[in-house]
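haha ok so turns out i had the wrong file open the whole time. this is the CORRECT one, sorry everyone. sequence first:
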Amino acid sequence: MSLLTACVLTMGFAVALAGPSRAQDATPREAPAAKVADDADKALLDLSKQKWTWMAEKNVDALEGLFHEKSMFTHMGGTWDRKRELDIIKSGGIHYKKADVQESSVRVIGSTAIVMNRIRLLAVVGGNEVTNPFMVTEVYVRQDGKWQLAQLSFSVLRGG
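then structure:
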């Protein structure tokens, strides 16, 4: 096998050879790892979207299953743990009425995933309805075959 053929095959391409060192047709082929990554990306984006729905519905039972037991939450008003976040949602201290997700991306690194959402959030905070543009960073960890939210941070976007 020529060096060119070995390099092309290593890169995930199917190659039909016309001779010992010439490729006539190099057609890209989806590698199995890329398919798995695409599936994980879609599952995480779907899970993130579902999280916004559960938060709007104050579905604390579903969120309790999603939030890792050691998860942390960073808001404009402070940082706290899972129990306090669930209590705040349940009591209506913060009511996430609607998250208009404008952009989303995901990056998976081993058993950790980072989901970035640019949103416009309509919420009731302390009895006042407010709308703010945020970049929300969600960090998920995969344990026992299940993604759990480990960290959620809101960064306000100025001029948005």
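The CA atoms of residues 65 and 133 lie 27 Å apart.
again sry for the mixup
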